[in-house]
# Entry
Amino acid sequence: MERISTKPYVGFAEVYDQVMADVPYGLWLRYIKGIWANFACSPRTVLDLACGTGNLSLLLARDSYEVVGVDASSSMLEVARRKFAAEGFKSDFRLGDMKDFQLDVPVDAAICVFDSLNYLLEPQHVQSAFCCVAAALNPGGLFVFDVNTPLRLSTIPQETTLYQGPGYVVVWGDLWNAAQRWWQVNLTGFVEKDGVWHRFDEIHKERAFPLEDLSAWLQEAGFQVKGIFDSYSFTPASGVTTRAYFAARKNPAEAGVEE
# Structure
């Protein structure tokens, strides 16, 4: 059996969609479109940051949006490209780090979902990501993203879960590092290819920053924070929020656009 120890989302990429089969991508899209409508955003082009295997990107493409997907895992992007090709869509997926990327042509809106920004473990990395998104947006463009809150990460049960299906087994272990204030997942997976089983080992880490810090960093990057909400609602986030959604508009002043 071949054993491979890798960065996150390398070995996991081939079975990610099977393990995450219950993720409500359709609900996310409806909610994001509701946020766009609420803040008078009618995008044609959308950046899907940390797009992963392209599930939300594909739903956007089906709705006739032009999508640019950026992700740090070439393995995840390979899966995303296969999905687009299978449905006859032209794909624009690019390998890039959330905290250090640029687009050649700016877009009208940006999204970053499934707590992807929690993977940035240092304040300066989050700040850099916000600056990159601001640079990638047209003036007045809307940035919508979600984050796990400190409450959520610190209360995830520390347990081991087994996921299995045709041709794969994944052992998922949740840990809370109180000293570092981050949540960690240890993954060991076994994937069968052409009669041979391959093993992968990955460590995933997330850190949650106070919502007020995220808000301040957005403003420093040139955004106006329009709202911070509980999941799938327009109820303001509070001390008991476990997943918060941000809606931030790139400062339109540079283009002379009125609010």
Notes: The two ends are 60 Å apart (CA to CA). The helical segments are 16-19, 25-38, 55-62, 74-86, 123-136, 150-154, 211-220.
